[in-house]
Amino acid sequence: MKNEECFSAPVESFMDDFDFGENLARFDKAAVFEEIDAMKDGPPFRKKKEQYLQPHENVLDDDEVEKEEKSQPSTTKDGYYYLTENEQKVPAVSPGDRAAIFKSSEMAGFSRERRIATVGLCCAQLVLGLIGGSQRFKVGNKHQKPTVVLLCGSHTQGAQGVSCGRHISQHHANVIVCVPGENKLNSEVSRELQLFRETDGEVILSPQNLPASPVDLIISALHRPAANLENDFSKSCIRWATQNSKACILSLDPSKHQDFNSKWSIFVGLPLHGSASLGNIYLCDPGIPNKFYKSLGQEYVVPYGSKFVIPLEDT
Amino acid sequence: MKNEECFSAPVESFMDDFDFGENLARFDKAAVFEEIDAMKDGPPFRKKKEQYLQPHENVLDDDEVEKEEKSQPSTTKDGYYYLTENEQKVPAVSPGDRAAIFKSSEMAGFSRERRIATVGLCCAQLVLGLIGGSQRFKVGNKHQKPTVVLLCGSHTQGAQGVSCGRHISQHHANVIVCVPGENKLNSEVSRELQLFRETDGEVILSPQNLPASPVDLIISALHRPAANLENDFSKSCIRWATQNSKACILSLDPSKHQDFNSKWSIFVGLPLHGSASLGNIYLCDPGIPNKFYKSLGQEYVVPYGSKFVIPLEDT
């Protein structure tokens, strides 16, 4: 009887409603391929079952990892913190704790698109200061126009990078954005790239085309906070960046597992417990109200004062 | 035969698809009432036909007026300009010319939501500097916490005001946003207000509830650039603001017809030809690439240098 209820309707009655084109479009091929790229020995469920992973390892580069980390003791509880210029404590958190804060703000209407836009703008303000400030960006100062290269992966961090690049380009810098090919981009990066193409900036779709001549600044938006994504694209980018030795590197929203040296790193909302390779640390305000930080406890006060980007000191 | 084709289907076949509730929801009652409020002698099409309007008058407060102004000689062509600190010329434009620039950027993907968010953030940065900067906003400096009142109309300018208020609130100021009642808000203001409600800020739905005690700063986002909308809400707000005499007023994206004195005004993207009542002029970067300003001619260079908000001097 049950089978009859389920299967008695003619197949055609369902076929009318099924839009193959639309369903195919929903399949994010690039993301799946990137996920496969990120695995060394097979799919994640097999690994987890056979426990190939050590507790300190992060191979997957998605929310799943962040959710897993969430269940581990957070760095906040370890008591590690940074200090602001006014000696206020800012706790270092785990990527999972930070992702949970962002997630709850997204549920309340603070879309990821807004956060990407805010981070892009704040990061651009930091960059314009770092590479010369008002003297160098004096309008009409064409012969000193700095060149900035942004290396952007196909994820939220990459989208933040492209957004940052767009603002820098509008402020009279030569900007080159390098992404892993149009068909490998997630929707966030694609959207930001569409806007970036309206500027005078240049888009490079393969690390092989990165400039041979020296550049003024390299911004790495290659890694997600939870993991260092070791795919061919980011490996090639990092090889180019570290060989282009005169240019300083700014890491945007970096992974704590970063294996190359940057001069500066800018964290979004809350710092992770960083390593020496991250260089000088900055923190930028992603525009999320204070209440979303309540999981950090009553003693936490949002530390920006009158600024939107502040330097942090290691303790 | 044609009539038969059109009308032969039974009425019921259309009725099924017609959702009265949804169609009613689409009807923006508040906007229609505001439009009627703005008219003195009747609907716009009658006026236009009978030519009640003089060329210098702006009664309607919508894009239609801006489109009409577009066809008039723009202020740019009059050659009026402001100067930056570096003595770069920034042309004053008509509201219509500026609206056309914004419109073309919207067509290319720079949504109004993004522009509102960018202006809100930049304006908040200016405000935090104007009312005390890093000394006053020192974290933990609770007894000097400033109070800022934002008066926001139901239009893009109002939405920019609410967005600005949200950022200020997150940076430890007491923020009060006054809007003309929930059911009178357009979708842009509603959306920003929803986000504002996640902060510790206060929302007031009638000018009668504005605080009697002195405040530190009043931000007016009451008027659209094309016209001074003389409705009861803005009249009451202005009356309160001018009587609350100790507090300075910052006009956000103001009308050039503004009839009260502000200490500062901040224009978005391009300044209008202002009057003395606008006070000191600032210009903020709405995040639109340089190419969209090409209608201003080859000689125009985006003037921000390394900043996103710059002061302008009257000539």
Description:
The structure is a homodimer of 315-residue chains. Chain A is of the alpha/beta class and 315 residues long. Chain A has 2 domains: 2-61, no CATH class; 75-312, YjeF N-terminal domain (Rossmann fold, 3-Layer(aba) Sandwich). Chain A is 38% helix and 14% strand. Chain A has helices at residues 2-7, 11-15, 20-26, 29-38, 44-50, 63-71, 75-78, 95-107, 112-130, 133-136, 156-170, 187-196, 232-243; strands at residues 81-83, 89-91, 147-152, 174-178, 202-204, 217-221, 248-252, 264-268, 280-284, 309-312. In chain A, strands 5-4-3-6-7-8-9-10 form an 8-stranded mixed β-sheet, sandwiched between helices. In chain A, strands 1-2 form a two-stranded antiparallel ribbon. In chain A, α9 packs across α11 (156-170). Chain A starts with a helix and ends with a strand. Residues 11-15 and 30-75 of chain A have low confidence and may be disordered. Chains A and B meet through α9, α10, α11 and α12 of A and α9, α10, α11 and α12 of B. Chains A, B: InterPro entries: DFDF (IPR025762), FDF_dom (IPR019050), YjeF_N_dom (IPR004443), YjeF_N_dom_sf (IPR036652). Chains A, B: Its main location: cytoplasm.
